[in-house]
């Protein structure tokens, strides 16, 4: 902090003894020590708070990136499922086997997207808010696949 040597401290002590006297010098030294301690605690508290804020901001950014990736993957899967659901009405000659293959392909794409998101999420500190969108996404995709299969069965 300050580059004060032993001689400088002795000089400050002698001047303080001459100015304050032997009765008030210990009390003044105690007060100065308390103020220095308070300043050090305040500075270290601020440093901890700043580092916590920076870490929280970094986590928010990672969470937003993961959410964007998940949203993009879900949009792609939704488009695949919608195309599967819409195409039997457009193509009357589509076979059930072809439709099943396309459903399997869309399902595998969704599984791959969810697997990618899970692999990129650090397992040591899973945020409770990051698992909720994954569960909702899985439920949504399962519902959309079931809807597509029902539509398929109705068209046949």
Write up what this structure looks like.
With 156 residues, the chain is an all-alpha fold. The protein has one domain. The chain is built from three helices and no strands. The chain is rod-shaped.
What topology emerges from the helices and strands here?
Elements: H1 6-90, H2 96-120, H3 128-155
Region (Disordered): 81-156
Subcellular location: Cell membrane; Membrane
Keywords: Cell membrane, Coiled coil, Membrane, Protein transport, Translocation, Transmembrane, Transmembrane helix, Transport
Shape: rod-shaped
Rg over CA atoms, rounded to whole Å, is: 34 Å
What is the H/E order? HHH
Structural class: mainly alpha
Helix content: over 70%
Unreliable residue runs: 125-130
Number of helices: 3
Overall domain count: 1
The proportion of strand residues reads under 5%
Distance between the termini: 82 Å
Largest sheet: none
Count the beta strands: 0
- Average predicted confidence as pLDDT: 76
């Amino acid at each position: 902090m300050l580059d004060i040597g032993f001689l400088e401290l002795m000089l400050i002590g002698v001047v303080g003894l001459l100015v304050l006297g032997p009765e008030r010098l210990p009390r003044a030294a105690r007060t100065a020590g308390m103020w220095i301690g308070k300043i050090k605690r305040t500075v270290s508290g601020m440093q901890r708070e700043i580092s916590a804020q920076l870490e929280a901001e970094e986590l928010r950014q990672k969470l937003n990136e993961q959410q964007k990736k998940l949203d993009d993957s879900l949009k792609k899967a939704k488009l695949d499922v919608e195309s599967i659901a819409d195409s039997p009405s457009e193509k009357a000659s589509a076979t059930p086997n072809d439709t099943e293959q396309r459903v399997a392909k869309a399902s595998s794409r969704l599984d791959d997207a969810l697997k990618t998101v899970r692999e990129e999420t650090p397992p040591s500190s899973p945020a409770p808010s990051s698992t909720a969108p994954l569960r909702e996404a899985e439920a949504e995709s399962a519902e959309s696949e079931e809807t597509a299969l029902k539509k398929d069965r109705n068209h046949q």
